[in-house]
């Protein structure tokens, strides 16, 4: 009987994995009308990256937009790309993603069985259901996101790490390097998993015994370090940012307007909600949620499993802390907490295996805890399955429907502006611009601009060639009110009922009109230097600073220019008593010039203009017409390259939009 047991376990694991998947997918099919259920629009973002990779443009959301650092996983689209190339295109790619998820979860069960080698055979049969026992985790596993692939690679990382600590001295260096390479692959799949791979690498080094510490560190952690350095370098070269676009857009610390206390409060709120909903409730409620952490603790305390369990628990805590820095951590069914839960579940499986090795009483305790950890969350399966189905219906009936209607338009739109939307460009086949910046557009910092404010996004659109600007916008007006109001004419909208996952029930499509933007490359007569305030490219180039936090807010307006034509410009609010500054470009020769300051209408303002080349002077700006741009002219006796100019609002707030230095 014994030789048949491994094959029986593999069959059991396969049936279990597929059965849980069908439990989610079949109700989803009912909600989507037969289309493979996808409960998150982000899945289609992965599909977009996969399509680009299959077309020979890896790491691009759309080939024409260039390199993008906005993908949450580098490896997942590359794994999907061959299926797209072989013909599984459009929504059909979901079938391959589903099959891949099942294979990866089955492989995770096999890996955990290998980790339990030496424990009673029943340990693996308990571990497999335990790994799939949490409906919140399963929701993410079967969603089409990278989570299942991450789980499969996690199992391989742990097996490789265990082998690196048990291999013979001659085989150990190669085993350490294999563990390091698997760890780097895990980080490439989810960057936050560095919180696990780091401690796991240290554990591998600790188990090296006769091998040198530093060479072991290089083998165990070097591949991850090389990957992270290469990724940061590529980001810097192609986007101008070291960080990934997702970090720039979503991390609490990226918001220039938050005080440290406000940022800390946001992080604490995230931690509180995640602890209560993604851990306590998801693991079975207050009465039963203790089982998984208790089993994980057993694994940490056991000498046999400590080298793996301690990094798993440390990684779960570390990833949770990293996730709490994400402003979207409390949304999308807590999917960002799933890796931490997965780490705990694997550690709990190791703990259950340890208890089953002991005497009868302890074995009974282990079996009881394993059953509680497996069965307690089960009451949430109906809720999570229903949410999965409803969310899939939402995506199909809103995002996918918008894509179909856009694809049917004649003439065909040139480019559609979206807000972090994957299904619309992927299913329509249209080129797109992601207003939130996660899709990327060459080296323009749309992700950072979206944090500063929507008018800053428009400033970057102004930098685009006119024939590449979006001619339609598929947006939530609540997210992009200025765009809808100032640059759009409504074409149609798609509204859904029973919304549980989309940002709003109604997605509206507008025809875009950018005629109020300044022509690309336009210059002012006599100008030798200018700073377009709230244009992040211009601000960075000229050392522009604004008061922060709780100041320097980005604003925008479309007002009459000198010729009476509507002209858009973005700017910043400098509160009374605070200052903005910039540095004159080096090419400006020293001499007299006029400083021209653009503002909008409003009450009288008093400014203090100081510059390093010639003292300070007060500037009185009178009350102004609300419908037209106003320009204050400040004569400077001597100004030249590398001079610093500081403008302070002495009376009332200063609304700064544009600065020029002009000479006859």
TrEMBL record:
The keyword Transmembrane helix applies. The chain crosses the membrane at residues 7-26, 92-112, 124-142, 281-301, 308-328, 334-352, 364-381. It comes from the Bacteria. Keywords: Membrane, Transmembrane, Transmembrane helix. This is Uncharacterized protein.
């Amino acid at each position: 009987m014994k030789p048949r047991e491994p094959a029986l376990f593999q069959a059991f694991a396969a049936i279990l994995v597929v059965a849980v998947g069908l439990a989610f997918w079949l109700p989803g099919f009912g909600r989507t009308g037969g289309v493979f259920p996808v409960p998150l629009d982000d899945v289609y973002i992965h599909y977009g990256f996969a399509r680009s990779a299959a077309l020979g443009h890896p790491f691009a959301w759309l080939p024409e937009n260039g390199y993008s650092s906005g993908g949450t996983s580098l490896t997942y689209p590359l794994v999907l790309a061959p299926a797209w190339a072989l013909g599984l295109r459009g929504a059909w790619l979901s079938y391959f993603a589903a099959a891949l998820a099942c294979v990866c979860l089955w492989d995770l069960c096999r890996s955990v069985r290998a980790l339990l080698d030496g424990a009673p055979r029943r340990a693996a049969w308990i571990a497999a259901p335990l790994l799939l026992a949490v409906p919140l985790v399963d929701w993410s596993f079967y969603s089409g996101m990278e989570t299942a692939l991450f789980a499969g690679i996690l199992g391989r990382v742990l097996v490789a790490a265990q082998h690196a600590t048990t291999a013979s001295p001659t085989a150990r260096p190669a085993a350490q390097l294999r563990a390091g390479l698997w760890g780097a692959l895990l980080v490439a799949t989810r960057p936050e998993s560095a919180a696990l791979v780091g401690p796991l690498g240290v554990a591998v080094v600790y188990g090296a015994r006769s091998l040198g510490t530093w060479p072991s560190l290089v083998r165990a952690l070097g591949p991850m370090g090389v990957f992270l350095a290469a990724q940061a370098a590529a980001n810097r070269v192609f986007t101008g940012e070291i960080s990934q676009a997702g970090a720039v857009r979503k991390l609490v610390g990226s918001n220039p307007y938050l005080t440290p206390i406000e940022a800390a409060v946001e992080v604490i709120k995230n931690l509180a909600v995640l602890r209560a909903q993604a851990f306590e409730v998801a693991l079975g409620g207050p009465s039963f949620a203790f089982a998984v952490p208790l089993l994980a603790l057993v694994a940490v305390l056991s000498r046999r499993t400590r080298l793996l369990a301690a990094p798993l628990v440390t990684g779960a805590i570390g990833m949770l802390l990293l996730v709490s820095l994400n402003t979207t951590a409390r949304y999308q069914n807590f999917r960002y907490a799933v890796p931490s839960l997965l780490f705990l579940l694997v550690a709990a499986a190791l703990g259950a295996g340890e208890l089953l090795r002991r005497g009868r009483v302890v074995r009974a305790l282990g079996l009881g805890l394993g059953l509680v950890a497996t069965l307690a969350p089960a009451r949430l399966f109906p809720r999570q399955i229903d949410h999965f189905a409803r969310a899939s219906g939402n995506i199909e009936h809103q995002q996918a429907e918008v894509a179909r209607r856009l694809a049917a338009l004649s003439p065909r739109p040139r480019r559609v502006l979206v807000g972090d939307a994957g299904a619309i460009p992927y299913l329509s086949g249209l080129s797109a611009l992601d207003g939130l910046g996660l899709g990327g557009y060459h080296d323009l910092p749309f992700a950072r601009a979206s944090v500063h404010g929507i008018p800053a996004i428009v400033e970057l659109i102004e930098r685009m060639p006119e024939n590449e600007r979006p001619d339609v916008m598929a947006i939530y007006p609540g997210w992009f009110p200025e765009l809808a109001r100032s640059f759009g004419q409504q074409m149609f909208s798609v509204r859904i009922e029973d919304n549980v996952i989309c940002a709003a029930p109604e997605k509206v499509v507008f025809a875009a009109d950018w005629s109020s933007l300044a022509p690309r490359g336009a210059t002012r007569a006599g100008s030798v230097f200018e700073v377009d305030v709230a244009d992040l490219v211009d601000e960075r180039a000229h050392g522009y600073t604004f008061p922060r936090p709780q100041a320097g807010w980005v604003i925008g307006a479309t007002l009459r220019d000198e010729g009476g034509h509507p002209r858009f410009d973005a700017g910043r609010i400098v509160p009374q008593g605070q200052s903005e500054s910039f540095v004159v470009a080096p090419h400006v020769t020293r001499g007299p010039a006029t400083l021209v300051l653009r503002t909008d209408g409003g009450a009288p303002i008093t400014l203090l203009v100081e510059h390093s080349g010639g003292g300070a002077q007060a500037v009185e700006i009178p009350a102004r017409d609300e419908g037209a741009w106003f320009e204050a002219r400040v004569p400077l006796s001597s100004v030249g390259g590398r001079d610093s100019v500081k403008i302070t609002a002495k009376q009332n707030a200063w609304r700064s939009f544009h600065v020029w230095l002009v000479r006859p």
